[in-house]
# Entry
Amino acid sequence: MGAAGTAAFVALALPLPFLLGPLFGCLLAALAGLKLGAWGPLTDAMRTILGVAIGASFTPALLEQLPSMALSLTLSALFLVAAGVAGYPYLRRVCGFDPATAFYAAMPGGLQDMLLFGQEAGGDARALSLLHATRVLLIVSIVPAILATAYAIDLTQAPGAPARDVAPAQLAIMAAAGLAGWRVARRAGLFGASILGPMIVTGALSLGGVVQQRPPAEAIQAAQFFIGIVVGVKYTGITVAEMRRVLLAGLGHGAILAVLAAIFAEAAVLLGLARPLDAILAFSPGGQAEMAVMAIVAGADVAYVVAHHVLRIVLVITCAPLVFRWLRGPPPGPPTPP
# Structure
């Protein structure tokens, strides 16, 4: 189904065919009742390629830009606060979800961690998964359309040089960096280990001048393909009742976040902190992997975009459980004896 979706997007010259094609192919198949699934180890391997591609974008010039990113990263933190303030009441009061489900679904980032925290707090794991998937689905559908129409960016182009133009030694170094980074990060319990571990190792090698190229276009397209599949298959087994309640709620929540992201991206542009392309991708609350893919294909400042998404995910994972406990208040004490 992913291959069929990709072929359709290529034939119609639609943007990001290797990401959106499999996403919508699997989405339609899931809505039609087919039982689909994604194999975790293969998906993680594909994310490793993306982590290497991001790390290869780190250069000495980037280090010089980090101080100038401080204000923009502060805006990213404020965007997260605004997303929670707007999203939680909507999901709780308007859509009627329980407090744990509404709160952890309102946090735009760290899907696996939000599912875990939400379940531990008594939330609905199925609803959380669908709400986050719908947020990502909506954002990764809207953003390419904006980039293609408003900025005339060609999102059908290859995301880099073909494999034949990449030195074999560079391929070997990047493969080793990806595998080593993934393994070490997983053992250390780092969130997003399959992306962040390879990104950190490759970034260090890139800053040292060892890595001088990105992974070939074919590898990045393969990563896009399986990342798209993962989003689409989350709708497997969705019922009519879930479509009416959860899917519509997720679309509404995604629309709220899209408006907030547009406001903060415009603020970053007006303050002279980023180009419109970079700001849109940095503040769009899609998945980290999906936004990184778009940044690579669109020719954006990948390091700038990824820095904002990593900060958002770190803040969500570290702060969300603390904020939820504060909102819920202290646990009830023992009953008073008569």
About this structure: The chain has a mean pLDDT of 87.
